[in-house]
Amino acid sequence: MRKIYLISTVVFWILVGGFWLAGLSAPKTLAETETPVQKGYTLTDVAAHATPNNCWMAIHGKVYDVTAYLPDHPSRPEIIETWCGREASLAYDTKTKGRRHSETADRLLEGYFIGELK
Ligand code: HEM
Predict the structure, then answer these.
(1) DSSP 3-state assignment of 4?
(2) Which of 78, 80, 88, 99 could make a disulfide contact with 57, Cβ separation 3.0–4.6 Å?
(3) Ligand 1: which atom is nearest the Cα of residue 111?
(4) pTM of the predicted model, to two decimals?
């Protein structure tokens, strides 16, 4: 009886070791080998964030979540809020009245970048 117990314990640990070794040599999954792909968003994704409390804009091929900036924007709120959830390159370039934003604004905008526009 003691012999059977010993043999089954040895067999058990041999099997455990075998599975462990097989796991070590198994090919790595995609998630383990690939570097993460830059996350991109479509205009449909952007359109799902179209309120002042959740405001994304697509500007020059990039997507920005500008929700946190809206209260600080120097125009009347409705001027910028209209562009939440939309492609807003032209509006950004003209401020809707023909004058472009300053380089300070461009730098500020980069801080709200969340991904490329797909
Ligand atoms: C896309 C829609 C937008 C529209 C229609 C818009 C419009 C305007 C207007 C009317 C002004 C005030 C008047 C003026 O300075 O000529 C202004 C100023 C400003 N906006 Fe916007 N804006 C938009 C988006 C943004 C975004 C996304 C940012 C940055 C995250 C931004 C940053 C600024 C800054 C810093 C100013 C002060 C003036 C300057 O530096 O150019 N704006 N914007």
Answers:
(1) helix
(2) 88
(3) 30
(4) 0.76
